[in-house]
Structures are given as structure tokens and as C-alpha cells.
């Protein structure tokens, strides 16, 4: 069921998790980022999520990623190769959505690709240009305070700033690498506390100490975070208050 209070909770799905977890998470979130066969997912899982998301009124998004290391390895794509990846993976997701009478609402890159377009101007521009050319009515979900949001605004592409409710932040506003202590938050009290802090201040404390501004329109809870379903339920209750 979609929120009517203006908030958005998104989750990466169709990444090989048990179907029971997928369905349970879809009942708590408002936007689903569906793996499109790059880092994970296949035609069957994509279609199942499309159908379930439509039945529950969940916003549908494409979640393209690079092959290998679950999409978290080094990105060596050229700008042209990135555009081809976006066209192929998002195009497949868009086709399935249309077949089932749904609409693709957004695109959110996965893992290393998500960070690569923030750190490399040529890749960031290529990404935004691809969306503007082939998916002009589709939003981009991108890191709050990052490069992609600025590029999207200049190109006239709709974009929502994203904050990661279950990830540790560095003082510069970037995510703490997953192989470092504190990179992943899994305790309900800690995550709900972060939500309250964000609502009151527009940001939260970084792992390095300083406060970080997170001017987000959508918050992400990862589907593979331990206890994700219980965390999603707790977040939904807190966000609905």
C-alpha cells in the first residue's frame, strides 16, 4: 500500500532472496527497485515482482547493475557501455511492466555502478543522458547531495534524492565501504533513532563523528540487510506516525 503522507521507503528486490521475503518486504515498502539480470535477477523474478508490486500498489523501479561480485566490484565500463547497459536492463524491466499494465516509476543503479556515476563525471553524464533519451518519463533515485542529482536537474530529468537508513555514512556524505566496521546498521533501535534524527534535523551523525545533511525524498532499506522484514515493519510504523 502506498503512503499518503509523502514519505517513500524503497528496497532492492529480486536479488536472489527467498520469495517469501520479497513478498513480505513488498507489503511494507512503497517503492521496489527490481534487479534486471545484471548483478542479479532474471526474467521470472522480474515478472513476479512486477505482478506483486502492482497488486500491492508499490511503485516499480529498475535496478540495473554490473555482472560479477554481486555488482559490487570495480566498474570498468566506458560511458557508451554504461548507456548500453541502461538501455538493455531498464528496457527489459520497462517491457515487463507494460505487459502487466504497470508503469516504471524510477531507476536506481546498483552497488558499484551507483557510486561510479557519482565519482566519474563522464559516467554520470552518460547515465543521465541515457535516461533522458530512452526513459524520459522515469525518475532517477540518486544519493542525496551527490553529482547525479545536479546533472539530472540540468538535463531536465526528474530525480529523487535518496538516503540510506541502514548504512553508515562518512563525514563527507558518502557511504562507508561495506568491508569497514559500522557500514551496515541492523538494530531496530538504531535505525528508528536515525529516522527520528533525520526528521528533526534533516540528517544524521556520521561514523566519523560530524553531522551529515541528508536532504532525501526517499529512504532505502536493503533487502539483504539481516532482519530486513522486521526492520521494514518497524520503519513503516514509525513513518506512518
What would your notes on this structure say?
The protein is of the alpha/beta class and 241 residues long. It has eight helices and nine strands. The chain has one domain (9-167, 216-222, 229-240): Glycoside hydrolase/deacetylase (TIM Barrel), CATH 3.20.20. A seven-stranded parallel β-barrel has the order 1-2-3-4-5-6-9, surrounded by four helices. A two-stranded antiparallel ribbon has the order 7-8. β2 (31-35), α2 (43-56) and β3 (59-63) form a beta-alpha-beta unit. 45% of the residues are buried.
Descriptive keywords:
241 residues, alpha/beta, TIM Barrel, seven-stranded parallel β-barrel, two-stranded antiparallel ribbon, 8 helices, 9 strands
Q: Widest sheet: strand order?
A: 1-2-3-4-5-6-9
Q: What is the tally of helical segments?
A: 8
CATH topology term: TIM Barrel
Largest sheet: 7 strands, parallel, barrel
CATH superfamily: Glycoside hydrolase/deacetylase
Structural class: alpha/beta
How many domains in all?
A: 1
- Assembly of the depicted chains: single chain
Number of strands: 9
H/E element string?
EHEHEHEHHEHEHEEEH
How much helical structure, as a percent, in the residues? 40-55%
* Unreliable spans: none
Q: If you average the pLDDT, what whole number results?
A: 95
Distance between the termini: 16 Å
CATH architecture, by name, is Alpha-Beta Barrel
In what range is the share of β-strand residues? 15-25%
Précis, in short:
The protein is of the alpha/beta class and 241 residues long. It has helices spanning 19-26, 43-56, 79-99, 111-119, 121-134, 147-155, 188-201, 228-240, and strands at 9-13, 31-35, 59-63, 104-107, 139-143, 159-164, 203-205, 211-213, 218-220. The protein has 8 helices and 9 strands.
Amino acid at each position: 500500500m502506498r503512503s499518503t503522507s509523502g514519505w517513500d521507503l524503497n528496497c532492492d528486490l529480486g536479488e536472489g532472496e527467498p520469495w517469501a521475503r520479497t513478498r513480505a518486504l513488498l507489503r511494507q515498502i512503497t517503492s521496489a527497485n527490481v534487479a534486471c539480470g545484471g548483478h542479479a535477477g532474471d526474467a521470472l523474478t522480474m515478472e513476479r515482482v512486477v505482478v506483486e508490486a502492482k497488486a500491492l500498489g508499490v511503485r516499480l523501479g529498475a535496478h540495473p547493475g554490473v555482472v560479477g561480485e554481486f555488482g559490487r566490484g570495480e566498474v570498468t565500463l566506458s560511458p557508451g557501455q554504461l548507456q548500453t547497459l541502461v538501455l538493455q536492463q531498464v528496457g527489459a524491466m520497462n517491457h515487463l511492466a507494460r505487459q502487466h499494465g504497470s508503469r516504471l516509476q524510477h531507476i536506481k543503479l546498483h552497488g558499484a555502478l551507483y557510486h561510479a556515476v557519482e565519482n566519474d563525471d563522464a559516467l554520470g553524464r552518460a547515465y543521465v543522458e541515457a535516461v533522458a533519451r530512452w526513459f524520459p518519463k522515469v525518475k532517477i533515485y540518486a544519493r542525496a547531495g551527490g553529482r547525479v542529482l545536479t546533472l539530472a536537474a540540468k538535463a531536465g530529468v526528474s530525480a529523487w534524492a535518496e538516503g540510506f537508513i541502514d548504512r553508515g555514512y562518512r563525514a563527507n556524505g558518502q557511504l562507508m565501504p561495506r568491508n569497514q566496521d559500522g557500514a551496515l546498521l541492523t538494530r531496530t533501535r538504531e535505525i528508528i533513532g536515525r529516522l527520528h534524527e533525520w526528521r528533526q534535523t534533516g540528517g544524521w551523525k556520521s561514523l566519523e563523528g560530524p553531522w551529515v545533511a541528508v536532504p532525501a525524498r526517499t529512504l532505502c532499506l536493503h533487502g539483504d540487510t539481516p532482519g530486513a522484514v522486521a526492520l521494514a515493519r518497524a520503519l513503516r510504523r514509525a513513518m506512518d506516525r
